[in-house]
Predict the structure.
Amino acid sequence: MSAHLVNGQSDNRLSISDRGLNYGDGLFETIQIRDAVPLLWQAHISRMRTSAKRLKIDFPESLEVSFFNDFEKLCNGSTAPLVLKLMLTRGETQRGYKIDPKASITRITILSLAPNLVKLTRDGISVVLCQTQLARQPLLAGIKHLNRLEQVMARSEWQATSITEGIVCDTQGYVIEGCMSNLFWVKNNILHTPDLSLSGVEGVMRNQVIELCKEHQLIDTRSGFYSKQDLLNADEIFITNSVFDILAVVNVEADYSTQDIMFTPRIFKFGPITRALQALLQQYYLRKSPV
Amino acid sequence: MSAHLVNGQSDNRLSISDRGLNYGDGLFETIQIRDAVPLLWQAHISRMRTSAKRLKIDFPESLEVSFFNDFEKLCNGSTAPLVLKLMLTRGETQRGYKIDPKASITRITILSLAPNLVKLTRDGISVVLCQTQLARQPLLAGIKHLNRLEQVMARSEWQATSITEGIVCDTQGYVIEGCMSNLFWVKNNILHTPDLSLSGVEGVMRNQVIELCKEHQLIDTRSGFYSKQDLLNADEIFITNSVFDILAVVNVEADYSTQDIMFTPRIFKFGPITRALQALLQQYYLRKSPV
């Protein structure tokens, strides 16, 4: 169940000439809606604007307002927990990769019911280590663009509903992120998160967590290139994204990247830093919310 | 000007829930139509089938016939030079990367007028060396999938209509291909073409050229990892794709990958191997054509 607008019009279809379809030539944002408020709206719009600039996609001044108007129209004051997906493509194209400077961007806005995350937030989640590796591509690293075949392939590695997320490494074997989330772990009272300058998506929630740690002097944060073993040696692990906020990883159940059938599932505690950040984030939402 | 079918129905739009749009989760083929015959049809279908298998996209037995029926319906016996684009996506999706095994693939068929290539085929083309580099990703290498942001970015590097193609290297600096073509060059009576096991699209025309060389014992072919300097030292250079067949590169006009403003444009002769392959290809078409 969802409601949609394409370029502000009630529609759920777009042209097969759109470059979003033909080349994945566009961007998206996924935003949590609580009590009719899009959380971290400015951070999402700002990331989309920065990413559009990197990909030379037009991001007119009016676009933020247009997306917000779309949201208000679709939400219509509902206080249900919702998820807002914004897509921006370079618009329609002739055959061929060449960018038509006269083409107009396509704006797509989709509002859906949020998944129920109470249990996962309370109990933590199980993850696997994926075999799929992410290419190292500084040109596209960090950007939430529409070229997501790597994530699709990684997500296809497990079927069990007991597994919430898969952790992916880059082609050099460094741990990067989850299929749909960013990754953090605590070791020796330092919060570690992978460097995303070569692969991965720079999540809005990832930056929010780093900000909260700094603002509240909770723990020092370090980003770098880390091995799977670094992750498995952690004191506590959590993942972040804009829809589910912060989830504790309490179980690394399998490693599909090795033929090691002797891999022993690793149990992690739902740790104090994870709990503190979950609480600080909810406080932040209350503080920032206009409600 | 083009004619289109979506899942066999006359339509030029598709659902915004399609995974082709959301993730670039699909494949395409671009096929030259001459006298109402799709050239190298079997090779195109075979590549799409192999690629679908690698990406775990359903490719039912009936799909080849469905695409061919689409083509015949759109072509309607016209003998104009045309270009057929086939797209296959994993179909519609709920939010999230997870593959729904019950989802049906989407089949898109687009027929357009072919560009006029007489002058380029006769005189050869000018190219530039692009700054954009291709990631090394064995998982996706060779596949003509819908994640084409790298090509879009490379193609955006030049505007001059006198430049037909841009040559791209991988992130290690090895020459890989053109934005929309494969690359060959002759040096010391060996035909060289880049290894595509880590990056690039394995073009149907590339394989056809390698086959023709072997069948006619024209020249030995070697694939490997080569530098830009290897390319610039060539005796003759040509590019291939399914729409324009084989085009001689007679000028490498600029190197955007270096800040070297002293780069001297390099002139190449429209060489005998290029001419021989152009002729052999046209003979092959006549031999194979049912007309």
The helical segments of chain B are 19-23, 41-54, 63-75, 118-123, 149-155, 204-215, 228-232, 272-288.
